[in-house]
Amino acid sequence: MMNITLHQLRVFYQVAKSKSVTKAALQLHMTQPAVSNLIRALERQVETPVIEILHKKLYVTEAGKVLIRAFEQIEAQLHDTKTQLNLLKDKMVGTIKIATVSTAKYFVPRLLGAFKSEYPDVHIELKVKNRHEIIERLRLNLDDFVIMSQLPDNISIEHHDFFEDKLVVAASYQHSKCAQKKLSLKMLVNEPWLIRESGSGTRMAMESIFKKYRIKPNIQMEIDNNESIKQAIIGNIGISILSHQSIEIEQKAGLIKVLNAAEFPVQHKWHLVKSKGKKLPIIAQKFYDYVRTHPNLEIFSS
């Protein structure tokens, strides 16, 4: 057991992650027999199987899962050690892992850009996913933190509200209501509405607004991404409630109009979220502190 090497753990981790010895060998630039031999040697050392093949599918055993957790802890410690050594040389380097829901992709890169302008040697891994996938990543502890608007209610978390966006009613410039200076949700109730998929943060915000004003909208289409919703709006298929940040370019280009509904804009908070009690690597903590001390950065302004 004492003879396990970091190389063995790294190869095993890749096998477990890719769920295939062949894929892991390709990714590691090794031969398949070499990977197989390494896994067998690892199993002899721990005196128990770490993977098993059932019905042509690769599964990680409980012993394998213990090794995976150990490897992740070792990698995190090595990363933190590297960062500390660089700090001694007055150089902030390292990797920050961030995952964000799709709507935040319209403004989060500007935040990251501002941070990197101060710390140019920092490497950032950014994943853009839907809300369900973001919650699963949070549950599995795959990132330093995640960015979302609708907080999960079944996970112990810590969060910081770092930005307040605005939700608006968006329509095509060809829409019949564009010229009206005074509108209300009740006046728009029979218009064809475009909504995000169930579980989406934007969908949840829309449903909350409709419930507050006791509106039962005429749902025309359910679409699973903002880009397609924007194209449907431009094509005058219907109207929708969207983040003002997400339509900034189309609005300036004269493709999408913000309707003058009395109930809007609606304030929409964005949160930096991490698992409760999670200890961040030094560089990730630096970014977390940067966001906390730069509320509503000017880079977010239209």
Task: Kindly describe this structure.
- The protein has 302 residues and is of the alpha/beta class.
- It has 3 domains: 6-69, Orthogonal Bundle (Arc Repressor Mutant, subunit A); 80-163 and 269-300, 3-Layer(aba) Sandwich (D-Maltodextrin-Binding Protein, domain 2), CATH 3.40.190; 165-268, D-Maltodextrin-Binding Protein, domain 2 (3-Layer(aba) Sandwich), CATH 3.40.190.
- 41% of the residues lie in helices and 24% in strands.
- It has 11 helices and 11 strands.
- It has helices at 6-18, 21-28, 32-46, 62-88, 108-118, 131-140, 185-188, 201-212, 226-234, 248-252, 282-292; strands at residues 51-54, 57-60, 94-101, 122-129, 145-148, 157-172, 192-196, 218-223, 240-243, 256-258, 266-275.
- Strands 3, 4, 5, 6, 9, 10 and 11 form a 7-stranded mixed β-sheet that branches. Strands 1-2 form a two-stranded antiparallel sheet. The protein has a two-stranded parallel ribbon with strand order 7-8.
- α1 (6-18) packs across α2, α1 packs across α4 (62-88) and α2 crosses α3.
